[in-house]
Amino acid sequence: MVKRTASAQWQGGLKDGKGTVSTESKVLSNTRYSFAQRFEAEHGTNPEELIAAAHASCFTMAFSGDLGRAGLNPASLETTATLTFEKVGDKFTVTEIHLDTRGKVPGATPQQFEKAAQDAKANCPISRLLAPGTRITLSAKLA
């Protein structure tokens, strides 16, 4: 079993307050976030960006593993996760994440590449976490 921790602090009201988020690895260390960073155009991180980053990295690792189990060794894989965050009724909701992945995989056919990508999309831990309520789509391109 593996456990990971992160912590957040917040001071003030929703719209005028500010917070920080930190991870045990210190990759994030008192990293600032706010209402404006989440809902407006202010530069900085927010929970949805962090979820997109987690999904892109988890999927890409799982994709590499699925290719390896198929006897293929990727030279490179690159994934962008685009998260859609919108108001549904009176609540903001993550409704969709689109994974756009590209890879150089010597010896792979487009069918092998697509199958491994679809398997990773369905089975990476972050996809499984999000799947019950979030639509996950994929576009995979073999270079």
Secondary-structure blueprint:
Layout: E1 6-11, E2 18-23, E3 31-34, H1 35-39, H2 47-69, E4 76-88, E5 91-104, H3 110-123, H4 125-130, E6 135-142
Parallel strand pairs: 5-6
Antiparallel strand pairs: 1-2, 2-3, 4-5
Summarize the structure.
This protein has 143 residues and is an alpha+beta fold. The chain has four helices and six strands. A three-stranded antiparallel β-sheet has the order 1-2-3.
Walkthrough of the structure:
- The protein is α+β, with helices and mostly antiparallel strands.
- The chain has two domains: 6-39, no CATH class; 47-142, GMP Synthetase, Chain A, domain 3, CATH 3.30.300.
- Helices cover 34% and strands 36% of the residues.
- The chain has helices at 35-39, 47-69, 110-123, 125-130, and strands spanning 6-11, 18-23, 31-34, 76-88, 91-104, 135-142.
- It has a three-stranded antiparallel β-sheet.
- The longest helix has 23 residues, at 47-69.
CATH H-level superfamily of the largest domain: K homology (KH) domain
Distance between the termini: 36 Å
Name the assembly state: single chain
- Can you give the helix content as a percent range? 25-40%
Structural class estimated from helices and strands: alpha+beta
> How many independent structural domains?
2
Low-confidence stretches: none
> How many beta-strand runs?
6
Strand order of the largest sheet: 1-2-3
* Tally of alpha and pi helices: 4
What is the fold-level CATH name, i.e. the topology of the largest domain? GMP Synthetase, Chain A, domain 3
Main sheet: strands, sense, barrel: 3 strands, antiparallel
CATH class of the largest domain: Alpha Beta
Radius of gyration: 17 Å
Please state the average pLDDT score: 96
The CATH architecture term of the largest domain is 2-Layer Sandwich
Percent strand: 35-45%
Shape assignment: elongated
